[in-house]
Amino acid sequence: MAGKTDALADLLERDPRVWRGRRPESWRAPVIPSGHAALDAVLPGGGWPAGALTEIVAPVQGIGELRLLLPLMRRIAGDGRRLVWVAPPFEPYAPALVQAGVEIGRMLVVAVADRRRDLGWAMELLLRHPETGLVLAWPRTLPPAVWRRLQVAAAESGALGMLFSAGAACGTTAALRLNLGICEGGLELRILKARGGFGGARVRLML
Predict the structure, then answer these.
(1) What is the CATH number of the domain that holds 81?
(2) What predicted TM-score, i.e. pTM, was given to this entire model?
């Protein structure tokens, strides 16, 4: 009986096709610290998944989603990689970004003529560019095939793709999905989906 048990344990450990439930401590994919210790404590690997897509679901814009990402922006720009905003719903306020320590000389804002037709295409090109470290985008909707292409592009370059949405996504391949809500003094984040661990964890951040 012991021999069979050992053989089964060995199979479970070696075969990547076998899902072993929640084992976030075994997470080995690259991550970048979020800059928020409480958030890193609940994210698989302890940070934002690099070379992957993250979807941030917020009921309304401007509740603090960009403050959440300021440490990441500082890190990306400080490493000499480009920070790209694709079709933002508002013009980024440069003085506030400078005051927050973001090197705006590494920042690029890209407009698209037709959001439905061009946004996914622009994101894919930017994610594949070797100088890109982070792409922020505000798609209304993306077909499943576009999600898959964006994930492949991010994985090949190691860049991070952050997509902001207002609700349920269709066919999303995001490695991480977060829901943002307002709480007193900051944000409440709930993990809807996390590659390498179950969703459901909640954390409050005072931003």
Answers:
(1) 3.40.50.300
(2) 0.83
